[in-house]
Amino acid sequence: MKKYLIVVGAAGLAACWVTAALTQPAAKAKAPAPRAAARAAAPANTGAYRAQSFTPGFDDLMTMLIQPRHAKLHYAGAAKNWELAAAESRDLRQSFDRITQTLPTYENNDVRVAVANFITKKLDAVDAAVASADAPRFATAYKDLTVGCNDCHTYMEHPFLVIKVPDAAPEAAYPDQDFKPETN
User: Fold this and answer.
1) Residue 173 near residue 75, CB atoms below 8 Å
2) Max CA-CA distance within the chain?
3) What is the crossing angle of helices 67-78 and 121-131, to 10°?
4) What is the mean pLDDT of residues 5-18?
5) Are 163 and 67 in contact (CB under 8 A)?
């Protein structure tokens, strides 16, 4: 009986607190700053994986940084948008630099050496074709770059990762970007 009274008493006390909280007038709060409001609206950090910082792997970096820029470079060059092609080539080169700094080795292979041997000279040829606005030269240089990508995959012990010259319309791959040069 004593336990019953304690439980009922505790439940009654909790009910009083809830009733008091619900009947109190709400205090006027200042509107949160926009950044704080965005954080408040964000879902709670519930996943255990979120407790650790994200450290991308080599595959993540290649998929996030290299593959899209490789495709966009093709679309820009095929559309003869030399300004965009130059930007994509520059971004592709900078992405390789970031990867070699972030992960200098991959499966006991020197990433900087791989990029230097398989990619850099091919990108130089792409840049020369872009600078001269030479579409046939660009197509050849881009194909050679793509071969370099696959040679690098073989060197990195991933020959099953085969990259190709895109064969879909740019709208299929990037429906939100226009690759045609601006006309003024």
Assistant:
1) yes
2) 94
3) 30
4) 43
5) yes
Q: Of 119, 115, 175, give the one whose Cα is nearest residue 144.
A: 119
pLDDT digits (tens, 9 = 90+) for 118-141: 999 999 999 999 999 999 999 999
Which has the closest alpha carbon to 74: 178, 175, 165? 165
DSSP state of 108: T
> Residue 183, exposed/middle/buried by CB under 10 A (0-12, 13-18, 19+)?
exposed
Query: Computed from CA positions of residues 166, 172, 175, 179, in that sequence, does the dihedral angle turn out positive or negative?
Result: positive
Give the tokens for residue 104: 């200098």
Helices 67-78 + 135-155 axis angle, to 10: 160
Residues 72, 79: contact at Cβ < 8 Å? no
Look up residue 50 and give its DSSP letter. G
Residue 1, pLDDT score? 46
**What pTM, to 2 d.p., does this model score?**
0.71
Classify domain 64-165 at the CATH topology level. Four Helix Bundle (Hemerythrin (Met), subunit A) (1.20.120)
Of 92, 166, 152, which Cα lies nearest the Cα of 127?
A: 92
Q: Where are the domains of the chain?
A: 64-165
75-125 tens-digit pLDDT: 999 999 999 999 999 999 999 999 999 999 999 999 999 999 999 999 999
